[in-house]
């Protein structure tokens, strides 16, 4: 097996261009035959047996999935076997070998081929056919090469494996399946006497054990040097024990002073190993990047890293890019890990196969815990012979990454228990093995459990609760929706180790046979927190707030605000005082002002010294004019200067904030007339028409332009009949009052029935402003909506600007992650996670928006209108999102597309939760429950609005 040093030397020392190589004296040289990633391909000769561009020799870029280069046909894992593409790809590539390599140990390394690969060098087989798409494999080819001459590499790739258990594991799974040499290919050139591979166990106390697997008859001793990541010497390490076996050395040493590795402070070092002969001459020198950390799983307790019990804030992630399929790049790995860290995640599960090596390197360096997994899919499991080979290839390649804490022996009942013990054969660290979606050994990794299952009171209540998939994020459901309830339960349950959301990104592929349109295979691959190209959905920011390591208790700012916030340090390793916080007191401008805000005061907040998991409080300085502010923003940054989150708190009430925006004048006259069952009110250049029978607004005309806000306010969840309608004109205004028949009403939990009437009161002012006050009853238990609604044709809406929470819409079980300020969105018809005319354009325009103060609705071919809201805690409903595509049975429809109120634009006091692919919102926790409680006050609910046209 090729030693892994070569890869790391390559990363540090060479430009990623084919034909270039890295050389270290007495080290290993890497010579790329292919390109290095999705953005750097090298053309090889290629023949495809069937499908597109088949039947003739041509060229293809390597590495690549051949479908993305225009060859063959597409298949998703759930396609029926008889309909699957079964192409065979033939590759040829010529390369030169130096005469100087004749006395070297030369290997050819394939980082990944889909699926069966037969390799020939100069017409001779390099070794047995390799099976399995996601695993690195190597052949020793020193004896097959023509030195100083041109050599021919031939690779035959069968898209469908000859091993049926491989086909089931990799090609029946719930993801896209491809064909081709999709990861890089290179030659490894080492001295004849060399370290073939090595495995390192570096503990948090500085102790190091290394197993060196040798191809060296002259080897007698080793020298060890600890370097920093830049290559500077930290210390020479004394070998305290050296055990020699045939073709293997076990080396023991200890570093005197090291910083440990964890995701919050991912300290890394390099371990340089020199293999020496009896005279002390270097035979071979290798260097590996390592992190010092200790992993323990304590039964009935938890998962510990460096003595700290961990709550995993994790996500599942496919190695995928829409343009290149499974062929990725280190740049993409960095982008994805940075986005996970930005969401305050600390862990990632490799679903459902080992990733590119560079992804693990990035997890090491930027800091994420990793579950590394072999590819299986439900029953039947991998046959034992091939499973043993795959386990070995996975562990041998990945053994030294400090980010990897656990091995997953497949996915969802695809585990082969006969190979559970094989991991320890190859893993010097003896990391434990889990079975995702199983109660196995010390853990319960249940998938998609309902909220109530988190009580963990079954026969497995002594197991560490550790869902490796939860809150399935189909379309806009799951992920952030429900996470607040799940996480508070997980955080406070001693035996909960957190969990992993499904999944990171929508797996939409650019179909090269369909003009590069994005294909998500219906609703099978639309599960991401981000879109195919990393477009951020609302759940991205919800997760960012809920998983913030700086946890601020919810609170509201009122006139008696004392400046105190209660805080909890939810880091595992960092003291809270290492973070910084800034407070901004902000005034917001009106709808017509281009400058949306003004900062009236800015100050630093002194965070308390709190060790991990400790609680305390901090105080925000109140400037003298703090009550003139509309909002307070608190921004926390981590020790590296990256934003953790920005919390926002309204200071002024909607009524106070809108005082300067709504100005009544007595200039002008108001005329009113009643005819043909219509009440017409005119003032200046505006005409309002109300129904004499219902009191509803029927038409608004400004000049000659009709502004199509009409048919409202309909009081939602109300069936009372109208008692009477009165029109009261005066000099500078006209009032239209609608009184409904009295009905019995029970405030709060009282059994006393009162009689109360709902009312609608319109007031048209001389300057054209239109006030609306609606009073309606609350209900102790309601599954409908409380509020009012209007019609406004969707085609007439161009966008909106508003003061409130944004820029994303909310659901009852996903209100976190927004910020209170002025926002502006253009109209779009985005269906979250679904390809279409407005595919992956975020934020979505349509939906519910919380904490409305005012909104300017922009019209198409009309002037639109502005509405000012004086009622606290009001949600604006802007149009109705289009229903997403669901499977043929429609089983997911009601779970991920709640019922909206009638009409188009509404002002409501309550909103629905949203479910997941597998759950209705009610089962995702208290915030997702469909029951709403009103009427705990002896006063009616009042909706107080002013419209400006």
From TrEMBL:
EC numbers: 3.2.1.23
Enzyme class, spelled out: hydrolase
Stored SUPFAM superfamilies: (Trans)glycosidases (SSF51445), beta-Galactosidase/glucuronidase domain (SSF49303), Galactose mutarotase-like (SSF74650), Galactose-binding domain-like (SSF49785)
Domain of life of the source: Bacteria
InterPro entries: Bact_Beta-galactosidase, Beta-gal/glucu_dom_sf, Gal_mutarotase_sf_dom, Galactose-bd-like_sf, GH, GH-type_carb-bd, Glyco_hydro_2, Glyco_hydro_2_cat
Domain Glycoside hydrolase family 2 catalytic per the UniProt entry, residue ranges: 299-515
Cofactor dependency: Ca(2+)
Glycosyl hydrolases family 2 sugar binding domain ranges (all copies): 59-190
Pfam families registered for this protein in UniProt: Glyco_hydro_2, Glyco_hydro_2_C, Glyco_hydro_2_N
Keywords: Calcium, Glycosidase, Hydrolase, Signal
Reactions performed catalytically: Hydrolysis of terminal non-reducing beta-D-galactose residues in beta-D-galactosides
Signal peptide positions (record): 1-19
Domain Glycoside hydrolase family 2 immunoglobulin-like beta-sandwich: 204-293
The family this protein is said to belong to: Belongs to the glycosyl hydrolase 2 family.
Quaternary structure (record): Monomer.
Name of the protein this chain belongs to: beta-galactosidase
């Amino acid at each position: 097996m090729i030693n892994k040093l070569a890869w790391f030397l390559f990363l540090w020392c060479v430009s990623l261009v084919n034909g270039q190589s890295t050389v270290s004296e007495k080290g290993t040289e890497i010579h790329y035959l292919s390109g290095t990633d999705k953005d750097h391909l090298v053309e090889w000769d290629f023949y495809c047996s069937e499908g597109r561009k088949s039947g003739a020799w041509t060229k293809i870029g390597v590495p690549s999935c051949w479908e993305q280069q225009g060859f063959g046909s597409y298949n998703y894992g759930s396609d029926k076997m008889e309909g699957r593409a079964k192409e065979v790809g033939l590759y040829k590539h010529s390369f030169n070998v130096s005469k100087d390599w004749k006395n070297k140990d030369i290997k050819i390394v394939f980082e990944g081929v889909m699926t069966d690969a037969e390799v020939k060098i100069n017409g001779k087989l390099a070794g047995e056919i390799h099976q399995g798409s996601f695993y690195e494999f190597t052949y020793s080819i020193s004896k097959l090469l023509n030195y100083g001459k041109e050599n021919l590499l031939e690779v035959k790739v069968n898209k469908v494996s000859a091993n049926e258990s491989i086909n089931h594991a990799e090609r029946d799974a719930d993801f896209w399946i491809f064909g081709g040499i999709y990861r890089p290919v290179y030659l490894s050139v080492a001295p004849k006497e060399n370290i073939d591979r090595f495995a390192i166990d570096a503990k948090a106390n500085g102790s190091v054990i290394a197993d060196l697997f040798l191809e060296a008859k002259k080897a007698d001793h080793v020298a060890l040097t600890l370097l920093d990541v830049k290559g500077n010497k930290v210390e020479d390490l004394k070998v305290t024990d050296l055990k020699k076996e045939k073709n293997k050395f076990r080396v023991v040493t200890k570093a005197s002073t090291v910083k440990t590795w964890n995701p919050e402070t991912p300290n890394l070092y390099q371990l340089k190993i020199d293999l020496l002969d009896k005279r002390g001459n270097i035979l071979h020198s290798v260097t590996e990047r390592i992190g010092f950390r200790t992993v323990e799983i304590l039964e009935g307790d938890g998962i510990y890293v460096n003595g700290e019990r961990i709550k995993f804030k994790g996500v599942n992630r496919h190695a995928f890019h829409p343009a290149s399929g499974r062929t990725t790049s280190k740049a993409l790995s960095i982008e994805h890990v940075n986005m996970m860290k930005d969401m305050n995640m600390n862990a990632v599960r490799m679903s459902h196969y080992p990733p590119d090596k560079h992804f693990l390197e990035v997890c090491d360096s930027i800091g994420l815990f990793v579950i590394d997994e072999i590819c299986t899919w439900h029953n039947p499991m991998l046959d034992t012979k091939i499973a043993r080979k795959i386990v070995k290839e996975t562990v041998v390649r990945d053994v030294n990454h400090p980010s990897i804490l656990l091995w997953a022996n497949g996915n969802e009942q695809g585990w082969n228990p006969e190979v559970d013990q094989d991991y320890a054969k190859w893993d010097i660290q003896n990391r434990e093995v889990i079975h995702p979606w199983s109660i196995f050994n010390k853990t319960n990794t249940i998938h998609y459990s309902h909220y109530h299952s988190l009580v963990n009171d079954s026969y497995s209540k002594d197991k560490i609760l550790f869902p490796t998939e939860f809150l399935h994020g189909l379309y806009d459901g799951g992920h952030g929706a429900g996470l607040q309830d799940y996480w508070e339960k997980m955080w406070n349950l001693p035996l909960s180790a957190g969990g992993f959301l499904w999944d990171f990104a929508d797996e939409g592929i650019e179909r090269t046979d369909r003009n590069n349109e994005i294909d998500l295979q219906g609703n099978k691959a639309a599960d991401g927190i981000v879109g195919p190209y990393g477009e951020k959905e609302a759940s991205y920011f919800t997760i960012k707030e809920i998983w913030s390591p700086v946890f601020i208790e919810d609170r509201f700012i009122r006139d008696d605000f004392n400046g105190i916030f209660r805080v909890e340090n939810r880091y595992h390793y960092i003291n809270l005082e290492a973070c910084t916080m800034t407070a901004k007191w902000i005034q917001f401008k009106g709808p017509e002002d281009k400058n949306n805000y003004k900062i009236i005061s800015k100050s630093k907040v002194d965070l308390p010294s709190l060790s991990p998991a400790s609680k305390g409080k901090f105080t925000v300085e109140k400037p003298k004019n703090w009550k003139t502010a509309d909002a307070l923003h608190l921004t926390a940054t981590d020790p590296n200067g990256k934003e953790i989150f920005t919390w926002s708190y309204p200071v002024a009430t909607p009524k106070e904030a809108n005082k300067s925006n709504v100005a009544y004048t007595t200039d002008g006259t108001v005329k009113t007339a009643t005819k043909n069952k219509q009440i017409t009110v005119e003032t200046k250049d505006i005409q309002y028409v109300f129904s004499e029978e219902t009191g509803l607004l029927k038409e608004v005309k400004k000049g000659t332009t009709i502004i199509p806000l009409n048919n409202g306010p309909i009081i939602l969840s109300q069936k009372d009949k109208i008692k009477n309608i009165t029109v009261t004109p005066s000099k500078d205004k006209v009032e239209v009052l609608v009184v409904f028949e009295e009905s019995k009403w029970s405030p709060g939990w009282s059994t006393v029935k009162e009689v109360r009437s709902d009312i609608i009161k319109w007031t048209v002012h001389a300057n054209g402003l239109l006030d609306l006050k609606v009073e309606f009853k609350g209900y102790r238990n309601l599954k409908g909506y409380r509020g009012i609604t209007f019609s406004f044709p969707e085609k007439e809406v161009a966008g909106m600007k508003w003061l409130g929470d944004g820029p994303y819409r909310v659901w009852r079980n996903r209100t976190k992650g927004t910020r209170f300020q002025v926002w502006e969105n253009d109209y779009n018809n985005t269906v979250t996670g679904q390809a279409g005319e407005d595919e992956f354009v975020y934020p979505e325009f349509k939906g519910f928006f919380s904490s409305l103060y005012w909104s300017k609705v922009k019209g198409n071919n009309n002037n639109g209108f502005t509405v000012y809201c004086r009622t606290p805690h009001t949600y604006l409903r802007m149009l109705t999102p289009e229903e997403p595509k669901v499977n043929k049975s429609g089983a997911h429809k009601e779970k991920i597309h709640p019922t909206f109120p009638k009409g188009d634009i509404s002002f409501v006091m309550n909103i629905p939760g949203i479910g997941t692919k597998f759950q209705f919102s009610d089962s995702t926790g208290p915030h997702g429950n469909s029951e709403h409680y009103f009427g705990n006050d002896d006063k009616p609910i009042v909706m107080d609005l002013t419209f400006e046209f």
